[in-house]
Design goal:
182 residues, alpha+beta, four-stranded mixed beta sheet, 7 helices, 43% helix
């Protein structure tokens, strides 16, 4: 019997953008206060537009709390947005406002993203989504992530430059070529 007091949390690992059957998957481990992660996200957004149905993308949380004091709560706010199907809206707002990620700011971004939860701030204060963020972080560590952004393309750690031409080249090498009939 399910515990009626237990909150069922929709995990970020279930949230993707792109076609389910895309031949290429990109997973980025990142931190919402990181300038490099924000730039990487901009490149990935371009890749998604350019590659269409060939690419599927997922963001996983890897807050570097020793250097970014607001990154963990920002990640928790993103998980809160997942609960209402507003992850991508919140995700992009967090990167756009990476220099202002205090609790009051997070609440205003949540409202802007369309999150309706009246207990948004109390849940952040109580770290309701803290373990969910930590699960992403630990999974990243298990995969060898030590710094962000860390990008995996089809489950392989990508070590090239995170630029549109470099990522496009790496992706193109993985897309099956359709043979033309004679």
């Amino acid at each position: 019997m399910a515990n009626p007091n237990k909150l069922e949390i929709i995990e970020p690992r279930t949230v993707w953008i792109g076609e389910e059957k895309a031949p290429v998957t990109i997973v980025m481990y990142g931190d919402y206060e990181s300038e490099a992660c924000a730039r990487a996200q901009e490149v990935i957004d371009q890749v998604l537009k350019q590659q269409g149905t060939a690419v599927r993308f997922q963001f996983r949380h890897f807050p570097l709390t020793r250097i970014h004091q607001f990154a963990h709560k920002a990640a928790e706010a993103a998980v809160a947005a997942v609960q209402e199907g507003k992850f991508w809206e919140m995700h992009h707002l967090l990167f756009a406002n990476r220099k202002r990620l205090g609790s009051i700011s997070l609440k205003s971004y949540a409202i802007e993203a369309g999150v309706k939860d009246k207990n948004f701030i109390p849940k952040l204060v109580d770290s309701v989504y803290g373990w969910t963020v930590r699960a992403d972080l630990l999974e990243g560590v298990d995969k060898g992530v030590r710094d962000v952004p860390a990008i995996f393309i089809n489950d392989q750690l990508y070590s090239g430059k995170i630029t549109l031409p470099s990522l496009t080249k790496a992706i193109q090498e993985l897309i099956p070529v359709k043979r033309k009939r004679a």
